[in-house]
Design a protein that fits this description.
This protein has a single domain, classed as Amidase signature (AS) domain (Amidase signature (AS) enzymes), CATH 3.90.1300.10. Helices cover about 40% and strands about 15% of the residues. The protein has helices at about 5-15, 20-30, 45-60, 95-100, 105-115, 155-165, 180-185, 235-245, 270-285, 300-315, 325-335, 340-365, 385-400, 430-445, and strands spanning about 40-45, 75-80, 120-125, 145, 145-150, 170-175, 190-195, 225-230, 255-260, 290-295, 365-370, 405-410, 420-425. The strands form 2 sheets. It has an 11-stranded mixed beta sheet with strand order 1-3-2-6-8-7-12-13-11-9-10, with helices on both faces. A two-stranded antiparallel ribbon has the order 4-5. Helix 10 packs across helix 11. It is globular, with a radius of gyration of 20 Å.
Length: about 450
C-alpha cells in the first residue's frame, strides 16, 4: 500500500525543514544496507565514504537555495557503471580483476553526484547483467530482504534489494531484456525502463556517443538501456526528469489502453492472472478507451532478441566465456557461433516486429500485460526453464526499444511478485510516467 506522500516528497520535505540531516540519512542507510540474508545487496559498500559524502554535500551546499534537485537523496548504483576509486565487477570476479580500479566516474555516477544524490554503494547483479534470476556463483545469490526464501530476480538484483531494504530511496538499474522490470515486480516495487534512444541521446550529462552509458559496461547495445527502481511510481517522473532528462508531461485525460488477449497469458500462474485482472479492472474504469490486442506475432521476438543479444555479448566478452559459469558461457558460445545469415534473419524479424508494434500504438496510447508469468523464484531451485518463459513477456518491449513501467500487484492488494508492465511508444517516456503517476495517485486518493 502506498503512503499519502511519496518517499521522494517525504525526504525532500524533511531535509528542507531540518527535521532530518544528511548525517542522519547516511546513518540510516548504513544501518539498513545488506539487510538481506545473503548480505549482498551491495558488492561495494563503505560506511566511512558514505558519511564523508554526507559531510561534503552539506559543506558544498551550505546555502539551502543552492542545493541541487536530489540533495541528500540516497540512490544506489548498479555495479556495471564505474564509480571513481572502486572496481566495477559486473558481477564477475574475473571481470573485476581485468579492469581494476576506475580512475573516473561513469556518466551515470557523475550525474548522481551533480544532482546532489548520496550514492550508498554499487549493487549486486547477475554476472555480466546476463540473467533474470539474480543468481551469482562469485558473489552469492541475491535474496529478498523481506523473504530469504525468494530470489530478487535480475539482473538488477541488488538494485531491487537496496530499495526493498530501505538503504536506497531509488536505484539505478539497467534493462536489456527485463532486468529492471522483473526484479521490481518480484520484489513488490515499481520499475522504469527508459526508451532505448534516451540512454544514448542528448541530455543533462556530458556529451558523448555513449550518452549515459559512458563509463558503463554493455551487455548488448542494441537493447541495453537505463532504468530506475522505486517504492512508489509517483516518484518516477521527478527522478526521470532530473536523472535522465525526461520532460514533464500533462497527465493524459482519456488514454487509450490496450490489454494483451487471454491466449497470450495462458502460461501464467493463477496469482499472476488474478493480479492482471485486478489491474485491468482498475485501468479500464478510468481510461478513455480500452481494448484487446493479439500478440501471437510476438512469439518470434524472444528468439530474435536472444540471438542478437548473445552475439553482441559474445563480441564484448570474447576470450572470457568460461569465467562466468556454464549457463552464461553456453549462451555466449551460441552467440559467437551464429552465422551472418542467421543474424540477418533475426534482424529482419526485428524490423517486422517493430513495424507491428508501431501499428499497435496507432490504436493505443499505452499497452499492458503481465510482467512475468511467475510470481516467485525460490532460492535453491533450478530456474533454467523459467528464463525463456519470462522473456516471452519482457523481450517484445525490449525489441522495440519502448519505455516501460512495471507496477507491483501489492499496490492494489494483489500478491507479492505479481504485477504488470505498461508500455508507450518509443520516446513517449514523459507521457508514460505522467500516466502511471496519476494512476498511483488515484489509488492513494481512493484509500482515503
Amino acid at each position: 500500500m502506498l503512503e499519502r506522500t511519496s518517499p521522494l516528497s517525504q525526504i525532500r520535505r524533511a531535509i528542507a525543514s531540518g527535521s532530518t540531516t544528511l548525517a542522519q540519512i547516511a546513518g540510516d542507510v548504513a544501518a539498513r544496507a545488506d539487510w538481506n540474508a545473503s548480505r549482498n545487496s551491495y558488492l561495494y559498500f563503505n560506511e566511512a565514504e558514505l558519511m564523508e559524502q554526507a559531510r561534503s554535500l552539506v559543506a558544498r551546499y551550505a546555502v539551502p537555495a543552492s542545493r541541487p534537485a536530489l540533495f541528500g537523496v540516497p540512490i544506489s548504483l548498479k555495479d556495471c557503471f564505474d564509480l571513481a576509486g572502486t572496481v566495477t565487477t559486473c558481477g564477475s570476479r574475473r571481470y573485476a580483476e581485468r579492469h581494476g580500479v576506475a580512475a573516473r566516474d561513469s556518466a551515470m555516477a557523475g550525474r548522481l553526484r551533480a544532482v546532489g544524490a548520496i550514492i550508498p554503494g554499487k549493487t549486486h547483479l547477475h554476472p555480466l547483467a546476463y540473467g533474470i534470476t539474480g543468481e551469482n556463483p562469485d558473489y552469492g545469490d541475491c535474496l529478498q530482504p523481506r523473504d530469504a526464501a525468494l530470489l530478487t530476480g535480475g539482473s538488477s538484483s541488488g538494485a531491487a534489494a537496496s530499495v526493498q531494504e530501505g538503504s536506497a530511496l531509488a536505484a539505478i538499474g539497467t534493462d536489456t531484456g527485463g532486468s529492471v522490470r522483473v526484479p521490481a515486480v518480484l520484489c513488490g516495487l515499481a520499475g522504469y525502463r527508459a526508451s532505448h534512444g534516451l540512454a544514448y541521446g542528448a541530455g543533462p550529462w556530458p556529451a558523448s556517443a555513449e550518452g549515459l552509458w559512458a563509463g558503463g559496461a554493455h551487455l548488448a547495445r542494441s537493447f541495453d538501456t537505463v532504468g530506475l527502481l522505486v517504492r512508489d511510481p509517483r516518484d518516477l517522473a521527478a527522478l526521470g526528469h532530473v536523472l535522465f532528462g525526461v520532460a514533464f508531461a500533462e497527465i493524459p485525460r482519456t488514454p487509450r489502453v490496450g490489454f494483451v488477449g487471454a491466449e497470450f497469458v495462458g502460461d501464467c500462474e493463477a496469482d499472476v492472472l488474478a493480479g492482471f485482472a485486478a489491474w485491468r479492472e482498475r485501468i479500464v474504469g478510468r481510461s478513455g478507451a480500452a481494448g484487446e490486442f493479439d500478440a501471437a506475432s510476438w512469439a518470434d521476438a524472444v528468439g530474435a532478441v536472444a540471438g542478437i543479444q548473445a552475439h553482441e555479448a559474445a563480441e564484448v566478452h570474447r576470450g572470457h566465456f568460461d569465467e562466468v559459469g556454464p549457463a552464461i558461457a553456453e549462451r555466449l558460445r551460441w552467440g559467437a557461433g551464429l552465422s551472418a545469415g542467421e543474424l540477418e534473419e533475426m534482424e529482419r524479424e526485428l524490423v517486422r516486429l517493430r513495424a507491428q508494434m508501431a501499428g499497435l500504438f496507432e490504436r493505443f496510447d499505452f499497452v499492458m500485460l503481465p510482467c512475468a508469468p511467475v510470481s516467485r523464484l525460490c532460492a535453491g531451485e533450478d530456474h533454467g526453464a523459467v528464463r525463456s518463459r519470462i522473456l516471452r513477456y519482457t523481450a517484445p518491449f525490449s525489441m522495440a526499444g519502448l519505455p516501460v513501467v512495471a507496477l507491483p500487484g501489492e499496490m492494489i492488494g494483489a500478491g507479492l511478485g505479481t504485477g504488470v508492465q505498461i508500455a508507450a511508444a518509443p520516446g513517449k517516456d514523459a507521457e508514460l510516467l505522467a500516466h502511471v503517476g496519476a494512476v498511483a495517485q488515484r489509488i492513494v486518493d481512493e484509500q482515503g
